[in-house]
Amino acid sequence: MLTGKRVLLIIGGGIAAYKALDLIRRLRDRGVSVTPVMTRAAGEFVTPLSVSALAGSKVHSDLFDLTDEAEMGHIQLSRVADLIVVAPATADLLAKLAQGRADDLASTLLLATDTRVMVAPAMNVRMWTHPATQRNLAQLRADGVLFVGPNEGEMACGEYGPGRMAEPLEIVAAVEAALAAGPLSGRHVLVTSGPTHEPIDPVRYIANRSSGAQGTAVAAALAALGARVSFVTGPASVPPPPGVEVIQVETAREMLAAVQAVLPVDAAVMAAAVADWRVANASDHKMKKDGSGRAPSLDFAENPDILATISRPGPSRPRLVVGFAAETDDVLDHAIAKRARKGCDWILANDVRPETGIMGGAENAVTLIAADGPEVWPRMTKAEVARKLAQRIAEHLA
After folding, report:
1. Domain ranges in the chain?
2. 252: number of CA atoms within 13 Å, CB side?
3. Does the predicted TM-score (pTM) go above 0.90?
4. What whole-number distance in Å separates Cα of residue 155 and Cα of residue 124?
5. How do residues 225-271 score in pLDDT, each as one tens digit?
6. Which of 33, 85, 229, 308 is the most exposed place for a label (fewest CB within 10 A)?
7. Hey, what CATH topology would domain 188-397 get?
């Protein structure tokens, strides 16, 4: 799938730069031509000699290299690749990319290119969660930059949390998805997935049994057909698929804000099991038993209706909006009514009574409800449901 593709690999200056060596090897094993660019700081972690030897290509690092400028030029260098990958993408590189700064070869290439850019962030957990970094990430997502990772785990500095660079094989899978030539190439699709957690107090929350497996499978199937997928997920028990932009949220209101930030898109698949209600009087402190035997009083407020909001007519409405209806009785009637009430184009209805094993299980049995009526699909794995749905979406958008 990747044979003959060209990747411009920008290696940032972080301890995760050592993973770039394995990434180069993995890409070349798949027939990819890798042109490496190193920042000055990257040379403190890996040597240009080792990078060049693995890539089978000269390492570029100097913005004012007269030979390079005479032969190709930094602007042309940024445009001959099929994809630009930044790995590791340090907080500094992400800030430069978000702000349009160009004070070295790497940042100049990123500013001068019209090629798609994929970043694999890597930094200390506090740097990742800092408001400045989060502002930069929001801007980059709005600009269409693709993300892979970061993962959560132990850092080289000894801290634990999000900020570990994605593993080389994860990045390779993301590159394959980004460069896939399929019926959805050039299309941008939004997928929501997983449950939402609505806080009661700092240690308790309201949730549901959704694993996020079906939404994850849908995102992977769409990416396999060449779509650029923005994957907005609640706290799911299954990991997000590689090759998609992952936006993690917790509550329904956070999910709505993330979805609106992604728009416009060509299609939206709203597979998340969003909580209908939240606790309006959630406590800032852990609720304690007082010995009286009385339970605390919880006041509930209705959460925003994300599917109905996205389905409303307007310039940012996707061409196709797909919802899910997880029901326990009168499945078809409730799903048909839900489609009319929400204003979406398609509804996938399923029976999630405990005895079906669907909620949190590996299989699903759905009925696709569109304007021309219901279409019953046989019980199959969630991956097969996802592939069938992705193909139908591709046919609809063609």
Report:
1. 6-178, 188-397
2. 21
3. no
4. 7
5. 888 899 999 999 888 887 788 899 999 999 999 999 999 999 999 99
6. 308
7. Rossmann fold (3.40.50)
